[in-house]
What we know:
A: mainly alpha, 9 helices, elongated, C: alpha/beta, six-stranded mixed β-sheet, three-stranded antiparallel β-sheet, 10 helices, 9 strands, globular
Amino acid sequence: MSPSGAGSSGITPLNALLLIIVIGGAVAAVFGPQLLPSQLAGGIEPLALPPGAGHLLGTDSLGRDMLARLLEGMRTTLFVGLAATLLALVIGTLYGAAAGLAGPRADETMMRGVDVALALPFMILVILLVSLFGRSMLLLFIALGLVAWLPLARVARAGVHNLREEPYLEAARMMGGSRGYVLRAHLFPQLGAPLAVYATWMLPVVMMQEAFLSFLGLGVAPPRASWGTLIADGVARIETAPWILLSAGGSLALWLIALHLAGERLARRLNVHRTTGALERTTAAGEPDGGEATA
Amino acid sequence: MTAGMKLTDVRVYYSSSEPVLDLPILEPEPGKITVIAGPTGSGKSTLGHAVAGLLPFMGARAVGTLHLGEHALPLDSAKKWRGICGKLVRWIPQEPARAFTATRPLLGQMLEGIDDDLKVNEQLVTLLEVAGLPDPPELSRSYPFEFSGGMLQRAALVSAFLPDPMIVVADEPTAHLDPPRSLDLARTVTRLVRQASVTLLWITHDLRMASAVADHVVFLSEGRIEAEGEPGLLLDPSRYEPLPIVYASARLAQPL
Amino acid sequence: MSAPNVLQISDAAVRPAGPESPLVLQGFTLSIFAGEIVALVGPSGAGKTTALRAAAGLLTLEEGTVRAPKRLGYLPQHPLTAFDPRWSVLRSVTEPALLAGAIKGDALEKAKRTLESLRLSDMLWERRPAALSGGQLRRAAIARALAADPGLILADEPTAGLDPVATLQLVDLFHQLTESRNPGVLWVTHDLGVAAAVAERVLVLEGGRIVESATMEQLAAQPRSETARSLLESWLPLDVARARSMLSGN
Lengths: 295, 256, 250
């Protein structure tokens, strides 16, 4: 009698497609720029060329191959997104777990702090930081990470707080396990699932934020490309060179949707509620606690 | 209200092809307490659900009919039960004292879902008296937290006997209750049954409780009736060839 | 001749819910010898579970001492939730021995042998708790309580909610398996019938302390405490005539 609702084993065609897009895109982003350096086209007049001979997706306004630029832009956005998410994971988990394990007053104080911080307008903070320190990738991912850790802390705290009451933790204590042992062996391993799911939800969000900031001109500086800067370029030339916006915007949308959907499927398979991070318990098939002692 | 009740040709299936309940006929005595006894998995809870009209909502496939007074209710159709469920057949849950929320006065909660005001008024005063509870005006302005657990239990029991049902089903009502509370529940229920003259089905695996309350006993095992009859006969291990559950209950009651 | 006592609680006072909360145990003294099975009875809320937790060393005592072995077996009330849902049954059954410091190989061997003696098929060993039936889980819980050969077993109403057949089976199984191992057992219950079937000696908990200690026969014949009397008075016998008269209040 296996638990129901845990998701089918094996990979459906849609899941396979999603995985190909997500992983393929990531690999291309990481290794692509090496293979397809985006040099300026020769000539005095930098031209925006439509898709055609030599340039699969055309060129941008400075004559650089669109595909190459895209891969570079993807790489930037992806790296910033990953770095920020990682930073958020580390800070958020430590803070949230500490609050979840602490006594009620400390817990309350810590989480109210998070609530207050969440209420602050993050855009203004980032603009402030950029104006103070200038534009750089480092600044970008630190700023984004410092914002993203807040909701993650909530997920971690909720997870720990709910798991605290579980009878099997008490059982382990009754059998002689120390508090530290019980946390290490029984509680923390269970946090992996909700945090992983939340991170896959968070990653596209952070990447969008980076793209948006870069679009506004607050993100990376040229010649570094980010998806956002490419889109900005595309918007500026929408009438004369629509393929720029189409390829940049289209690829961003496609990749983020794929990532988002893949995250959703992961959540369902791991039995975690998407945005609250709550672990859903699969019920034992049928039986309540009765049953004969020999069967 | 006293009326006849009869279950005929009942077969209930969940996920397998073996029925969890298979009863050609069951006809409890009107106005009396019939105990449905058996180990876990014997189908006794399913029987309770069948009588209460709940089977269509539980994912069960069922055939058979519940005859109630002049109604003939098929077990697989929820529609025909409308107006019957909750009126002519009432249900006593486990841990009845927990049926109330702290935020509203007690009487309102006891009468929730019952809209036959006339009938209610007639009976309410008598039933409250029988159960040893304060009168309606006091209950309508008091909140649950002002009463002891025992009194809340009795209040929940009284509402199961409103407004004048034909059948009351009690599904393991004393499960999880400590002995003093169980005894109080049994006393209250027996008094209410006599006062309201309903037919009560008491589902339990506690044979000592059955000894105290049963007018008639039906033993279920693996979905079928294994034995049926007088409590004095069936619950006496020395006189009746013991069923496993009787034997086990006797072993567990030995030193006392 | 005196066997060593495996559990000794002396004059314990405990406020389990925190410093401002009421004392649940007070002047609580209890001792259990090796091989002795003792039942702790009392009405709901009297503090029986608190006594178990104190014996397990989980509570800070305001007063008094607890001396208990490091190796403890625990038999929970609800087996399904008392197992880590992500661990295989075998892993959970091996856990107590590992906690007590055994080497992995030994602990694993003991766990397997105990599971066999409880007739739990080896096909179930690698499954997760959710895949087992209620009855199988109860046997797995017994296996976990016994596998490490603990000196003391703490049982928290393991038969609550079970029908008489299952209750008797569990009690008999428990006796069979503890015969050779000889642990001390503290078994909490509010059912006098179970207490009588399981234990040689019954302790009555009242007002935070043990007020009576006797065999069930002695207790039934001459109860000395209010709690014992109340429990006996609400004990319905398996006898229609007597049960009915008790119901009508004679």
